[in-house]
Model the fold of this input.
Amino acid sequence: MHDMPWTRFHWMVIVGLGTAWILDDLEIQIVAAGGFERTLGMDAGDVGLAGTVHLLGEVAGALIFGRLSDTWGRKKIFTLTLVVYLLGAAASGLAPTMWVFLVCRFVSGMGIGGGWWSCRQR
Done:
C-alpha cells in the first residue's frame, strides 16, 4: 500500500477506519461519563469493569479475527469486525442489566480489536 499512488481507495480506508475509531472512542466516553450508571445502577467500580471487559474483548478480537484475516482475507474480516462492533455497541445501549451490558461491551471490543488487527501490515 505504501508504493501505490494515493487514490479513492486510500480515502475510503481512511474514512472507514476513522469512523470506526471515532465511534469506539465516543462509546467509551459515554460509558465513562456515567450514561449507564443511572440506568443500570452501576457504581465507579462497575464502570471500570466495563472498560476492562471492553479491553479484554479487544484482545480476544485481535487474536481471533487477526488469525481469520490471514486465511479469509482482510477485506472480508474487516467488514465482519465492523458489523460485530456495531451490533455489540447497539446492543449495549439496549442492555437491561449490567451483566448483559458487560457481554455486549465484550462483543463490541472484539469488533474493534479485530478491526485494528485485521488491518495491520505484514
Residues 44-122 form one domain.
